[in-house]
Amino acid sequence: MLSQLGGDAKLLAGGQSLIPLMKLRFANPAHLVDLNFIPGTSFIKETNAELHFGAMTRHAEIEASSAAAEIPIIHDCAAGIADVQVRNRGTIGGSLAEADPSGDWAAVLMTLSTEIRCLGTTGERTVRLPDFITDAYTTALEHNELVKEVVVKMPPKNNGGAYLAFKRSAPVYPTASAAVQLTMDGDVCKDAAITLGCVGLTAIKATEAESVLRGQAITEKTLSAAMDAARTAADPQSDMRGSLEYKRTLVGALVRRAIEIAVRRARGEQVEVSHIYA
Amino acid sequence: MPETSQAIEKIAIQLTVNGKQHSVKIEPRMLLVELLRETLDLTGTHVGCDTTYCGACTVLLNGAAVKSCTIFAVQADGAEILTVEGLEKEGQLHPVQKAFGDAFGLQCGYCTPGMMLSTVQLLSTNQQPSEQQIHKAIAGNTCRCTGYQNIVHAMQLAAESMKGATVDGD
User: Fold this and answer.
1) Per-residue CA distances from A202 to A84, A134, A275 (Å)
2) Which of A56, A209, A252, B80 has the most CB atoms lying inside 10 A of its own CB?
3) What DSSP character marks residue A101?
4) Model confidence pTM above 0.80
5) Domain limits at B120?
6) How many Cβ atoms from other residues are within 10 Å of residue A211's Cβ?
7) Helix (H) and strand (E) counts for chain B?
8) Number of domains forming the structure of chain B
9) ipTM score here?
10) Residue A105 counted as domain residue
11) Does B64 touch chain A (CB under 8 A)?
């Protein structure tokens, strides 16, 4: 259908970003192809130590899923996106395909091993998430391709993660966000994945901050070194959500808090986390 | 709306609104809130911001709270919609409506229909919500009179008065 309609056609998933963008005339597609009536596109399945999300799975369904809650950072994300009404409509596939620099899912799923199954007229292909999102609002999807499934590998044992996003109010995009996933061996951090959201054209992998933690005990010294590295990795712009300096400071603080929660969760503690409102 | 030289083909849909079946032919670009207010004359559903922020247009679509300014009406084909007009039954206010009155959970009333439908959704899944859960349930509903304290009280009162009852608005 997309091939027939040509480049002016757009896919409509949950519509919670696309419809507002159309009202503002930022998007002006000649045709919309509504995916909401296609059966079998909304599911959460656990197989072979992987979680599979159908592209049209709503944030609210992920929020309520006990399978998804096995990876707490995924629950943090799903339960905090916008508000109840938006979570009832918005989808994980739509969010990733839109690739908004302020979107929550990309930042969170970058800290895990995530693959996107893309379906096109010539068949299916798998793209790793870091290769899927290529720029702001830009993905590796061809024009006549769509996201079919999002596949997340279950993290190894002794793993803990947390996602913290700072918002001025519920319905808006965050000012900054931090996703942290740690593999711990006692007090020592064996491996770390840290992603920063809303402070660049795409979610930013804070590789320096990760290597600061890797092989080290989480102490005041390593925490503040990771914070500094995250601040340096951030590439924010000043806008109505805050100045460049403010966002840099904020993202450092979010990384620190997320690390602390990730460590506690890796120990098996239950820590309830949600987006933080100003 | 921009002028368009092409006549837009209308699409026939069927939906149930407040228990009543409707068959309508509408333009595909029409929003659900426009269908409710302008075609079906159900003006209790308000348009506040029209940007997916304020939640004044909240209705239940198959039991789930949604912002009706951010759904095309054609997407509600085959759906069951509940608006504020559907809360009252045979002249009896819905317990949520009664609670909003009794607890003074409104000032200007503009956000109230949306607030009440978000309350109905919350209580349909959680009959004894904590204050924090109440805050989260109406995080997508803005009250510009900032009367949140009484709104929260009204929601607590509604939960109290509906204990043991099934909450589906029907």
Assistant:
1) 25, 8, 19
2) A209
3) T
4) yes
5) 95-161
6) 14
7) 5, 5
8) 2
9) 0.93
10) no
11) yes
